[in-house]
Amino acid sequence: MLKLTRFMKPFLGILLIAILLLFGQAVCDLSLPNYMSNIVNVGIQQNGIENSVPNAISQDGFTVMKTFMTADEKTMLNESYSLANGSDKNADGKIYNSIYSNLGDKQVYVLNSGLSSDTINSLNSSFGLATWTFINVMQDLSKQTGSNPNSPQFPSLASSSGIANIDIAQIYNLQPMFKKIPQATFDSAREKAALTEPILVSKTGIVMVSAFYKELGADANAIQTMYLLRIGLLMLLIALGSGAATIFATFFSSRLAAGVARDLRKAVFDKVESFSSAEFDQFSTASLITRTTNDITQIQLFLTIGIRMLCYAPIIAIGGIIFALNKSTSMAWIIAAACTFLLGLIMVIFTLVLPKFKMMQKLIDKLNLVSREILNGLLVIRAFGRKEFEDKRFNDVNRDLTKTTRFINLVIAAMMPLMMLIMNGTSIVIIWVGAHNVASSQMQIGDMMAFMQYAFQIIFAFLMISMMFIFIPRASVSGNRIAEVLSVRPIILDPEKPIEPSPDMKGYVEFKNVCFRYAGAEADALEHISFVAEPGKTTAFIGSTGAGKTTLVNLIPRFYDATAGEVLFDGVNVKDMTQESLRQRIGYISQKTMLLSGSIKSNIGYGNVPSDEQAIEKAAQIAQASNFIAEKEDGFESEIAQGGSNISGGQKQRIAIARALARKPEVYIFDDSFSSLDYKTDSALREALKDYTKNSTVIIVAQRLSTIMNADKIIVIDESRIVGQGTHEELLVSSKEYYEIATSQLSKEELNNA
């Protein structure tokens, strides 16, 4: 899989953009629970008042709060507030008495603009502690005097709600009494306030601020509504930003994946095109098709989904943990336990699924192989009545693939309910523990809700990671299969310094003591082959099936390279020529006729680029194909199906011969290319070839003696060796093997006439 990373280099810019977008999406998604917490804690519970620092406070309120502060806090308070008249304007240009309806022309202390966040935090703490110091002082006085806590003199201050229900003017009336209280009482009350839960201190301070605003006549509903609208609008913008980032990240990751898949397909195709027959022996055609299509599709799918998940999920998981711990460290064990269960589940799934993915890709190869064989051999299957046997063969491999796929899908299907069970169990534990923390003022309701949201985000991040553990093994298997093809080093390569044959020598083919052995074979397919094929002459090969005739002629265009000895073309070793230069000089008609989808014209002109219509028509005439082409409605423009399945075997051979003739090469190689022709057509074709190829070298491999009887040189191959060379008449006398072939195919009269 890592061997394929080089294909991502052209797309590093797109990858970076996608990662940045995913980072932005993650930041947006992580911020939403925090704002939701603010809506609950501040917008609902605190009526939109964000902290314990009032933006405006009456002179009496200012004096009372200073009474319960330390000297340093009093100094900071004096520096942070300024006296203003009711007719003055604030920083936003609004008149104070229009904001605070009860103010009139009175003076009020207003918070200075431009204060640092540290100063605001310090003031927030000071107001909260001063409020609780006041509560503690009042409760101590109530106990010392034995007064009724609910009496007008000592209002009920057992909780923050007590402050909300009292008349703030009643507290101002107690200011003369506060001046007579010993400093030790304040210090003791201050120490108790410092031990109070910070959340309770903050909430109580905010309740006091609400009382100050009520005194000034501020619109509490307007404050709450404006806060909810502001935070709600901000959340909406963040959600839209997250959605936009998701869309563009998906677009760029899909673009990257499609580009990599395109380059991979081209690389695999180019590599396969460079394969010699030896490399094709390593991979079946079905396997190469699967690797070029299904395996590359798996890589594309992995990149499309993986880039988003592998970048987004870790950010969400790490960020969620940080934000969750910021809300409550006491419940961190819940997330740790959930993550432990998730990791265990992921490891089990990974162990079960990885071997099955490897098996599945091999089964897809096998299914493609069986399907291809059945479709290509459908006529043979029907002719021999083996439909049931082939059905069983297909069903067996199809059933194996289905079982493997079903197992993988069952594991994946079981994963989701287990994940939901863990997630729902986590939410129950969070609510249970969080409720106790809220009851003990260690946590606010909004923070508990945010903690739950962060826990869900963390679990979903692990869920996405677990999904990648499903995609990664399959993509890894596919990547390795693709890398296997790309890593193959073709045996047949062009030389670094190619040699071009002399123009004076055209069509000379010579074998010098050539030996050849197939990879993995125990014996040579050809042994010590030596002969010369000259231009203007026909050299023919004949011998028993499997003697090595086709192997021999395949060494000329370098479909294979000789194991030993030399194959010379125009006096140059074929290994010292480029493959293109060598093959441009050869017209090759293979033993297995192969036509391409298109027209008859495109098939005949396939090796003659740019196409010469006169040459195509002439080649068709020489190949005895003109008659059946003329009978077709569209003539040369008639369509040829893939593999030439819509014409007969003899017609295919004649079009293939015409294709080689239209190229007008130096050397013609006919590898048993007349086997499907009747004797009349065979004879007419050979007669027409004499004049057309009189200046070229003609090499013929044949099984029928009548095809090669008039050849200038006949070479007899038997058991990988040359056992005879000469004309037909000479070989009848000198070669026992040739004589046996002749007696099996010719009558006594034909032998005697020879």
Question: How is this structure best summarized?
Answer:
The protein is α/β, with parallel strands linked by helices and 754 residues long.
Give the strand order, joined by hyphens, for the main sheet.
9-12-13-6-14-15
Total strands: 15
Per the CATH scheme, the topology name of the largest domain is: ABC transporter transmembrane region fold
Percentage of residues in DSSP E strands:
5-15%
User: What low-confidence regions span 5 or more consecutive residues with pLDDT below 50?
Assistant: 149-161
What is the CA-CA span between the terminal residues?
Answer: 67 Å
Largest sheet: 6 strands, mixed
Gyration radius (Cα, Å) is 46 Å
How many domain units? 4
How much helix, percentage-wise, in residues?
Answer: 55-70%
Structural class: alpha/beta
The backbone outline, from C-alpha atoms, is: rod-shaped
Which CATH first-tier class of the largest domain would you pick? Mainly Alpha
The named CATH superfamily of the largest domain? ABC transporter type 1, transmembrane domain
Number of helices: 28
State the CATH architecture of the largest domain.
Up-down Bundle
